[in-house]
Amino acid sequence: MLENWNLTHYFYFFLLLLPFTSVSQEQNEWKLEKDKNGIRVYSRHLTGSKLKEVKVTCELNATLSQLVAFVSDIDHYKDAVYRVADAYLVKRISDREFYYYSETEMVWPVSNRGLVIRMEFDMNRTTRTLRIRGNNAPELAPQKKGVVRIPLWHSLWTVQEIDSKRLRIDYNFAVDPGGELPIWLVNALIAVGPYQSFSSMEKLLTRPYYQNRTFSFLQP
């Protein structure tokens, strides 16, 4: 019971941290898993796999620059995200593209999980729509002894400005955590965790460090 409790909390934040290319699969119908406080979580099975893809839709009181600053803040992932044992920048190409490593602490006897993510921001200045894509990039960091490498991570944020201080977010992702975690457990937690993460995100975005930041690719 204790191990399952900790695994649940691990997934709440792990799935948010490992940020977001849309998964190219034949489309199955979305199933609504949770609808509470303006946050809707959907899931569907990936074609040819026992794993699920998840979609979250919500609106937040925040600006695009706040969100970009939050997602780009690798140095504070260990402070802001539950059970992050290690997180560091691997390579920064520009403000709109970087690679980072993340390792999430698991509960014994389950091994820690780690991966390298390529993050890319793409802003459509005409429609004021921001897309944040994430893909695992294992070739950029060596395998760490005792840590299970995540074999699959695809994700996509689609963020639309409602007005200057409010955002509409669609967030899709699919993940295979690798190792010996049962598929039923992964699928059960994958639909629950994102709700908890998005519930706390709006408060995190109000931190002073994320205010009044500027990014050239967001400018009109």
TrEMBL record:
Gene Ontology CC terms, in alphabetical order: cytoplasm
Ranges where the START domain occurs: 23-210
SUPFAM superfamilies listed in its UniProt record: Bet v1-like
Domain of life: Bacteria
InterPro entries reported in the protein's UniProt record: START-like_dom_sf, START_dom_prot, START_lipid-bd_dom, START_lipid_transfer
GO MF annotation, one: lipid binding
UniProt protein name: START domain-containing protein
Species per Swiss-Prot/TrEMBL record: Runella aurantiaca
